[in-house]
Request: fold
Amino acid sequence: MTKRQENKEKKQAAILAAALGLFSEKGFAAAKIIDIATAAHVGKGTIYEYFRSKDDLFFALCQWYVDQTAAAAMVSAQSLGGRVEERLCTLIETLVEAMSKEIDTFSIFLEFWAAAANPSMRDRYRSALLAMYDRLRGLVIGLVEEGRETGVFREDVDPFTIAAGVVGAMDGVMFQAWMDRGFHAPQVASRFTRTLVRGMKA
Reply:
C-alpha cells in the first residue's frame, strides 16, 4: 500500500468514526455534513470526495458497522477453545460484552432499521443487515450442529431455529440496555445462553 492510499484510508476511517458519533448523537436527519467534517478534522468538500451525499455516507456507515460486527464475531469464534457448549456461551457473551461497551452508539443501529423500512432505501439496507444476521446465525448454527454430531446436544434441536432465536435475543437485550442504562446486558446474555444450553443438552 502506498503512502497516499494509506492516508486516504485513514481519512475515510476518520470520517466514518465522526459520522458514527454525530449520527448516534443527533440522528440522521439532524446531523449535518459540516459538523461531521469538523469532527473528522477535514474540509466539507473532502467528505464529498469520498461520499456523493449524506445518504451515501450513512449507507457506507451501515456497511462499516455490519462488517465490524461480523468481524468481531469471527474473531471471537476463532479464538474459542474448550467444549462446544462453552464455546457457544462464550461467543454470545463476548459479542454482547463488546456491544455493551459501545452502547452509546447503539441508536445508530435503530436508524439502520428505520432506513430498512423506508421504501426509497429499503433494498440496500435490508441486504446489508441480512448479511450481518446471516453471518451471526451461521456461527451459532455451526456450533449447534457440532454439538448434535458429538452427542452433546439433543438430535431434535434445530440449529437454524436456535440461531435465529439467539440473534434475536441479542438484539432485544441490547435494545433494553440502550433504553435502560441500569440493565446489565452481559449478565442477562450469560444467564440466558446458559439456560438455553442446559435445555439443549442430550
